[in-house]
Amino acid sequence: MSEKLQKILANAGLGSRREIEKWIAAGRVSVNGSIASLGDRATVNDTIRVDGNIITLKSAEEIYTRVLAYHKPLDEVSTAKDPQGRATVFDRLPKTRFGRWISIGRLDINTTGLLLFTNNGELAHRLMHPSYQVERNYAVRVFGEVTSDMLKNLKSGVLIDGELCHFDSIMDKGGEGSNHWYEVSLAEGKNREVRKLWQSQGVEVSRLIRVKYGPVELPHNLNRGSWVDLSENSIKDLANLVKLQVTPRKERPKAAKSHKKKFQWKKK
User: Fold this and answer.
1) Catalytic residue among 91, 108, 161, 172
2) Which residues are 173's β-sheet partners?
3) What pTM does this model have?
4) Domain 67-130+215-241 adopts which CATH fold?
5) pLDDT tens digits, residue range 50-71?
6) What CATH number belongs to 135-213?
7) Which of 42, 133, 139, 260 is a Cys-bridge partner for 209, taking CB atoms 3.0 to 4.6 Å apart?
8) Tens digits of per-residue pLDDT, 212-240?
């Protein structure tokens, strides 16, 4: 049975349907040797190439959605390859049976914590899209005096790079002296938004850890540099959040091992 080309490639884990539509429009996709056009249909038996590379396709019965929770350490960049040769968040991930790993959002090199990966391009696209307002939670240690007026500003909104930004919630997690912990949440996560919001109030972020993405929390027993497959129920919870039906993998493989320390709330 034939399906739209962008759906076939999205199911293969290459990206979201919208992203693949742009590839087709740019002439990057061919079917059986002919450059594809928007609206073209194909089957898994056709020879489909992207940028000249043949794509290995699976039948609908073989396709499943897999989501990894990864505990990002410091000094890893959130790109597949780095021109400077630095370690990336993709280096420790397991191989996929089809498609590729897609990062659901990013964390900058100095931010640690929860980073999700999936082989389902449409799921990744929706979880990152601002229209779905998926909440992200961060543990933040700030250096400097924080007043009640500052906290009000951070919740009501301040201009960052010409846009009004704010935290949806701020919870005091304690601390001593000039170092204090807060847990904050926001629904979009623009580039370095958490750091820039605090900097707008004259205080510096000395440590930043993502502890939750949507309904998925950073597992307490997941060491830095380690990953674990999400359960079927957790994957379905993520998909339901963005109104998408998925078929999770039935069998959960073992997580990779690491001996690095896990994150715990600290007062200092």
Assistant:
1) 108
2) none
3) 0.80
4) Pseudouridine synthase (3.30.2350)
5) 999 998 777 666 778 999 999 9
6) 3.30.2350.10
7) 139
8) 999 999 999 999 999 999 999 999 999 99
